[in-house]
Write a structure and sequence with these properties.
Length: about 130
């Protein structure tokens, strides 16, 4: 007969395998790395004036939004796993620790919000690209 700690280990191992599988599958959905680094994007934001510069920034923010969507899905999958196999004592004593559904739901929501904000920035730069002078 397996002990409670062995079942918890098995449950956590299955959760980790699920997370890796989801992450691997969704990584292919994210477009290739943006042409700008974070530092380059930050510098370009202050001086962008041409359509091409705004398109580069739009691509950068779209890429960031996709990465946040992947993060949100990973946390949503973990939240489902923790909801299906809760540890009542842990949920009660440490409700927002990394091993709880509440933690995962919170970070999934935060990642979705960040993705929406990045998409809004991408849209703004796409609009600026259409109206910018060459």
């Amino acid at each position: 007969m397996k002990t409670r700690s062995e079942f918890q280990f098995i449950r956590q191992a299955v959760g980790c395998i699920l997370l890796v599988a989801v992450a691997a599958g969704l990584t292919f959905a994210v477009e290739s790395a943006p042409t700008l680094t974070r530092a380059e994007a930050k510098a370009l934001i202050n001086k962008a004036s041409t359509p091409e510069e705004h398109r580069q920034l739009a691509a950068y923010f779209n890429h960031k939004a996709e990465a946040m969507e992947v993060e949100a899905v990973e946390h949503e999958e973990l939240a489902k796993e923790y909801t299906n196999h809760p540890n009542a004592l842990h949920e009660t004593k440490h409700p927002m620790s990394g091993n709880t559904a509440g933690h995962c739901r919170y970070f999934a929501q935060a990642a979705r919000k960040a993705a929406a904000e990045d998409r809004a920035l991408a849209t703004a730069h796409e609009n600026m690209a259409r109206t910018a002078h060459k």
